[in-house]
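Batch 3, record 17
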Amino acid sequence: MPCYAKESIDKYRSQQPHDGLSNVEDTSAAGLNGSPTADERDYRFVEKRELNSLIALLRADAFRVLGPRVEDAAIVYDELESLEDLPQGYVETQSPGRYRIEKGDHENFFQFTVSPNSWKQFLFPARVSLARAKKDRDGWSFAEGDDLQQDADGRREKLAFVGVRACELAAIAIQDRVFLEGPYVDPVYQRRRESTFIVAVNCTTAADTCFCTSTDSGPKCRQGFDLSMTELPHGFLLEAGSQVGGSYLEKLESRPANPSEIESGFRLEQQAVQQIRKQLDTHDLRDLLLNNLDHPHWDQVATRCLSCTNCTMVCPTCFCSSVHDVADLSGDNVERIRQWDSCFNLDFSYTKGGTVRDNTRSRYRQWLTHKLGSWQDQFDSLGCVGCGRCITWCPVGIDLTEEVQAIRVKPTSKRTLSTPVEPAVATCVVKDEDD
Amino acid sequence: MGSNVSQLDSNRDRRHSAWVTYPATVTRMVQECADVFTYDLHFDDPVTAEQFDFQPGQFNMLYVPGIGESAISIAGWAKDGQGLRHTIRSVGNVTDAIARGGVGMSLGIRGPFGSHWPIEHLTQAKSPLDVVVVAGGIGLAPLRSLIEFMIEHRSQIGNVDLLLGARSPQDFLYREDWDRWTEHGIRIALTVDRADRSWQGHLGVITLLLEQMTIPDPAHTLLMTCGPEVMMRYVGGVGAEKQIALEDIWLTLERNMNCAIGLCGHCQLGPEFICKDGPVLRYGRVRQWLRVQDL
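Prediction for the assembled complex:
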């Protein structure tokens, strides 16, 4: 299976400024077939029902088609069988600690932003079987877990994501870097990612919690998709981002978009930009946070934070996990299960000498300074794509942009990174637990 | 069940196969002190045994199925040179299970992982470097393979001082190795936190020993340390006071290591993944993080 969107994601990434600062207009954004500017893009217009044909084509090609649908009073990502499954006519409201959807006065399929789900749950599933152990007379033997084994005929499940937002494309690009481009590759992520077809959708509206313009990750989908859509009142503007995407586009009943349709799409994209109110000042963000690890504001956040892990569960880039053993009753057959974990869990930093981060202050600090600070050292980008999920789904409505701002307006910076303080030898006391 | 041999023989490089676990058996178990044992482990599969190699300072994930994994530094090769040696304090579910299992126990090994002591600096130096090794308690375990390496390359290395600290005179590790180390010109100095009547040596924290030491040529001296984190911070501080460059002071850190390949997030210290960027790191690289409480 070719790695469709991966190639274009690489291009997208190469254009991403490392500090998320730049507002430089992307001039080379394109699929695999060249680098047209925005005016030269080859937009096709399709009627809305053609999206149904696309879903059917993908399903006929053995893709498991996933997209937004309404469940439990929220828009979630789950299997799509047809256009009927999409949340047509819905509008959402999001604010710190609050999420509601309701029927609006429109017939659009994608007039909302991001949901409690992210595509992470399909590429980096919350629970996978990594390995197995089996005991016999000769002792233990080990094998790959279910999620690493090939199907009997060597095929893999192919995933098609329909309705991927620009911030989510950026999040996938970030997780690609974490799981595929370091000294070690995550085999579960790799095999899922390599067979994923991505249909992106440009946001035409923004939630109060959105701030992708600050992190330079949206709302326009620029790279990393096979197809992208802009939803107009009476149809979709489609654009191919890869050759495979283009081959599907050819199979749809489409015509070249006329200038007024392209203009209409552009205006809708601008509408989303204008609706974004929230801002995260990313200037010198890494140094600001890492120079203020002893800032009193961390104590203040800790009085509100419940350490519930919600922000890390909904975050599309958070990648922490733990492996646990699950044995059968005999104890001779053991499965190694990897599950999402969170730096907000007490056990997360447990060592036999003690738990490193045994209070909420240090755990919130770890999350925020990693996401916005040390992530840049590790992966050369912010770990945040401005989707706002952590703000919406925080039960007490903690807003990371406000926490950063609280430190920015009054940094302590008593000690800077360049002048760490040597410990005073005279007060040296060796603790008892010497391991 | 899949065959580990075929997994090893396949063309998948280590980048893709970090979760492959190799079966091994405990072949020797020696009690070092109250709750610390040294184990020799042999891979069940001879091909694995032949292909396995490590650098001094790296660690393995030892796996007791049904209980879990534990990151344990590699103390060296086993007595016969075929298997591995690990020194383990029994302080948790996995380490207790290994102590209970003893000789003949079957377990799993993933590894080796992480960075190693700067042995290239020792062998590639224009003129022989002096080395000061400071070990607190079981912190000697990850330094043991370094000491053995220096013995193998003794002619290329200058003075080697080994400062050992323990809680009490009964808590020192590797006494059976000391005579051999001394014969190879390694100077050993001891100190304990709490003496008994038999103890005639130094009393007090190990940094005092280091402070009293004369370092003749700090510009050509490597300081390598392992022990409780607070001890290493002070050792680093004393080393710096003695004019050893921060780049020449090395320590090895312990954090919660779950995946051992930098993908699970547990072991972070500031920007460092201790499992992948460490565990052996330059003091100058991490001292700014070590001073921050609960980081």
